[in-house]
Every structure is written in C-alpha cells, then in structure tokens.
C-alpha cells in the first residue's frame, strides 16, 4: 500500500463501486462485507493508485457527503485522455462542478460531483508551465500582485 490511500464513505458502497468502474474506469479489488449487506471496505484501483470506499455507519459517526450536506475535499485523476473520461463520467450521471477547460497551469482540467457526493478533479497534462508564470496568473486571478 502506498504512503497515502484515500478512504471515502458512500451511501451504497456496492452501487458506488459499480459506478466508479463504469464511469471512471476503476478496477475492484478486495471487498469486506458485514452483515446487513454493507461493506466496511471495497478496494478500487485507479491506475497505480487505490481508493477505499465504505458504506455509511451512522451509529459510529461514519457518514457520507450526502448525510453531511457536501464535501470540501476532492480526489484527482490524471489521465492521458481527459475528454473521454469526462464524457464517461457525465454519461454515467456525474454533475459538473467546474467545466472541463484548458487551464493556466498547463492542464486540461475540470471537476465533477459523483452521484455519491464526492468531488473529483479530472485532468490531462498538456504543457509544462514555469512556476513563476503560474504564480503570476494565480495572483492576478485572485486580485493580488504576486510575491
């Protein structure tokens, strides 16, 4: 297992695993079911990275973004063909959070919200941009001078 592995909570882990396979190209690994048809873990592989998903367990304080009213974090997938992955996700029911576009740091990037309330950044690297240029444009976008 890598140093950091994301663990996310979803409402309906089995359905979520199927969605992540269909929409984002995940491969399903180990599943650990518990009585009542829920899972404490389903391993998903995205390229060389893993994401673990689990069902909600409200009595233990384990809640999904749907129960919490949203999420403040995002998972990110880098791919060689973001337009294809983007369309797969949209066709599978993802909502657009930030439209797919060529952005100033050299990527084609956008964000979706999956049907389980999690935000995903999808991107494809297009060109290398020097850090000083990225810092300058970011400062301008946020209304300040770099430095």
What would you say this structure looks like, in words?
The protein is an alpha/beta fold and 147 residues long. It is 25% helix and 38% strand. It has helices at residues 13-24, 65-68, 82-91, 131-141; strands at residues 6-10, 27-34, 38-46, 49-55, 74-78, 95-102, 107-113, 119-125. The strands form 2 sheets. It has a 4-stranded mixed β-sheet, covered by helices on one side. A hairpin with a 2-residue loop joins β3 (38-46) and β4 (49-55). The radius of gyration is 17 Å and the shape is elongated. The model has no long low-confidence stretch (mean pLDDT 94).
Strand order within the widest beta sheet: 1-4-3-2
Please state the CA-atom Rg, rounded to the nearest Å: 17 Å
Distance between the termini: 39 Å
Largest sheet: 4 strands, mixed
- Overall mean confidence score, pLDDT: 94
The level of helicity is 25-40%
Secondary-structure element string: EHEEEHEHEEEH
Query: Segments where pLDDT lies below 50 for 5+ residues?
Result: none
Q: Give the DSSP E fraction (strand runs of 2 or more residues).
A: 35-45%
Number of helices: 4
Oligomer status: single chain
Give the overall form. elongated
Number of strands: 8
């Amino acid at each position: 297992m890598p140093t950091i592995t994301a663990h996310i909570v979803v409402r309906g882990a089995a359905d979520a695993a199927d969605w992540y396979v269909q929409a984002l190209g995940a491969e399903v690994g180990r599943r650990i079911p518990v009585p009542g048809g829920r899972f404490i873990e389903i391993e998903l592989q995205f390229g060389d990275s893993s994401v673990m998903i689990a069902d909600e367990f409200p009595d233990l304080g384990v809640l999904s973004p749907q129960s919490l009213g949203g999420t403040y974090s995002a998972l990110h997938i880098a791919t060689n063909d973001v337009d294809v992955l983007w369309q797969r996700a949209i066709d599978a029911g993802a909502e657009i959070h930030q439209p797919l576009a060529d952005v100033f740091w050299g990527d084609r990037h956008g964000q979706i919200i999956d049907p389980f309330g999690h935000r995903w950044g999808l991107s494809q690297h297009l060109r290398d941009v020097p850090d000083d240029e990225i810092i300058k444009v970011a400062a301008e976008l946020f209304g300040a001078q770099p430095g």
